[in-house]
Amino acid sequence: MCCGYQSGGCNWRGRVCGEIDLTVLRDLLTPDAGADRVVPPTGFTARLTVFSAGAMAFLAVFALALSLAAGRVAHSWGDALARSSTLRIAAAPEEMASQTATALRVLQTTPGIAAAQALSPEEQRALLEPWFGPDLPLDTLPVPQLIDITETSGGYDATGLRLRLSAEVPGAVLDDHTRWRRPLVTAASRLRLLGWVSILLIAASTGAMITLAAKAALAANAQVIAVLRLVGATDTYIAKAFVRRFTLRALSGATVGTALAVLGILLLPDAGEESGVLTEFGFYGAQWIWPLFVPPLAAVVALLATRSAARRVLEELA
């Protein structure tokens, strides 16, 4: 069923209102020298379309890499902190050894705990060194004893363990990392969402700029369009020429922008294991297929934007 605009026949307006079908794809891939001459091959609209598509594709690849990296970080942080806990024992120096031994015995007999190990003074010094420096006199300070707990996949009953520890090791404090895990995972998840929102905004901005470029090209060629109509050219023929030319320009520009972005990601230096989200930035394994979707997506956005612009401008020039 067609909708409203009759100039050039039902087929043209039906394509504008409907989906991208095989006929549209055939029109894009089939060269038509006569139709291509309708659209100027150069000019500021051509440069604007290629540049905007390339720049937006470049940004989209980096936004996609950021979103995927944030997802990996959220998953790794959540898994790492969910499977570990820390027991802190604060006691007098003469009681520290006995309370540590009692705590280890309680932990080793608790279902859901795979391993429990008391940190050595050197390991505790290494943990405190980033805040207090390498010359920390650990032996003269009332530093609590830390016990690293590794959980099984099913986890353990934290409430029950706290009750046992309060009875047998009064100076022990159990930290299951919940207060640390949730904010970190939430922040990484929101960063991933921000990446996807950025991609949507980039696509919308690309469509807006291509729409402006297409309208400018159509308006600048109003006299040519009028002559074409006088010699029998339909609006379908004219619009198809503009849609094909702007879609291919966007595709070529987005391909170059995507290639440059992928090259830039490949050339990024190693950020090291301590750099958080930067360590995971980029694409891994099968994720490298995702940038390949950016140029076709840019072409689809350009096709829809040019199609809409051509319909409106041709209606105004009718």
UniProtKB/TrEMBL annotation:
Q: Biological process (GO) annotations?
A: cell division
Membrane topology of the entry: Multi-pass membrane protein
Transmembrane residue ranges: 48-69, 191-214, 220-238, 250-268, 288-306
**Cellular localisation:** Cell membrane
Per the record, its GO cellular-component terms are: cell division site; plasma membrane
Matching InterPro entries: ABC3_permease_C, FtsX
Q: Which residues form the ABC3 transporter permease C-terminal domain?
A: 197-313
Keywords, in A-Z order? Cell membrane, Membrane, Transmembrane, Transmembrane helix
Q: Which PANTHER family match?
A: CELL DIVISION PROTEIN FTSX
Protein name per its UniProtKB record: ABC3 transporter permease C-terminal domain-containing protein
Which organism does this record belong to? Puniceibacterium antarcticum
The opening ranks of the lineage are: Bacteria, Pseudomonadati, Pseudomonadota, Alphaproteobacteria, Rhodobacterales
